[in-house]
Automatic annotation (TrEMBL):
A matching Pfam family: TetR_N
PANTHER family: HTH-TYPE TRANSCRIPTIONAL REGULATOR BETI (PTHR30055:SF234), HTH-TYPE TRANSCRIPTIONAL REGULATOR RUTR (PTHR30055)
Domain HTH tetR-type: 21-81
Protein name: TetR/AcrR family transcriptional regulator
PROSITE patterns reported in the protein's UniProt record: HTH_TETR_2
InterPro entries: Homeodomain-like_sf, HTH-type_TetR-like_transc_reg, HTH_TetR
Species in which this protein is naturally found: Parahaliea maris
Length: 212
């Protein structure tokens, strides 16, 4: 399963640091693969260590505990999403076409294994007192998303509060489609829902109309 590495392109690292980063990546990859294959319950401490080819003590050295590993997976997924979305062409086509293209790209990420794994972790950790449920973490993620949307739709005619509601609405719709597909265990025909989402976003992003 391909994942984003901790080692960025062109970033100089020493041999020991590179070894440490590679070990972290192996641990995260092991967790993701276990959850993808068998659900959240499959990612026990013993199985994580075995799949990564390390002792559990090594995993604790790098992440502190299992919760630290899971939070790192969530953080990695969030980074992957921002990087995936920022690459979308922004200046081509009408407003309707640009919004549709954005929604389709969002859905491409949401329906992938990376997001489904993160969703399973988030649902399992929702009652735990952790960094994941920290309001400061949520606010940081919201600011990143607002910045992303402002970059993708620089001519949007809305304030930041409205934009946050649109971001939340997009998340609710797409996450709902993912959960529906997981529960039904079928490939859903999402054309209608994605089209409705695109039209809703356009009506709020550009309330004055005059498609450009």
């Amino acid at each position: 399963m391909a994942t984003r590495t901790f080692i960025e392109k062109g970033m100089p690292v020493g041999k020991q640091e590179e070894k440490s980063l590679n070990t972290k990546n192996r641990i995260l990859d092991a967790v993701k693969q276990l959850i993808e294959d068998g659900g959240f319950a499959a990612a026990s401490s013993t199985r994580i260590a075995r799949a990564a080819g390390i002792s559990w003590g090594v995993a604790q050295h790098h992440f502190g505990d299992k919760q630290g590993i899971l939070l790192s997976v969530l953080e990695q997924c969030s980074t992957e999403y921002i990087n995936f979305m920022i690459e979308i062409p922004r200046s081509e086509g009408t407003r309707s076409e640009r919004i549709q293209r954005y929604v389709e790209r969002c859905w491409e990420f949401y329906r992938g294994s990376e997001y489904k794994i993160a969703l399973e972790i988030a649902l399992a950790m929702r009652f735990q007192d952790s960094e994941f449920t920290n309001p400061e973490t949520f606010e940081r993620q919201q600011l990143q998303l607002v910045e992303l949307w402002r970059t993708v739709f620089p001519d949007a005619e809305v304030d930041d509060e409205t934009l946050r509601h649109l971001i939340r609405h997009t998340y609710i719709v797409l996450s709902g489609l993912v959960i529906d597909g997981m529960l039904e265990n079928v490939d859903l025909n999402t054309r209608f829902q994605l089209g409705m989402l695109s039209r809703t976003l356009e009506s709020y992003l550009y309330p004055a109309g005059n498609d450009g």
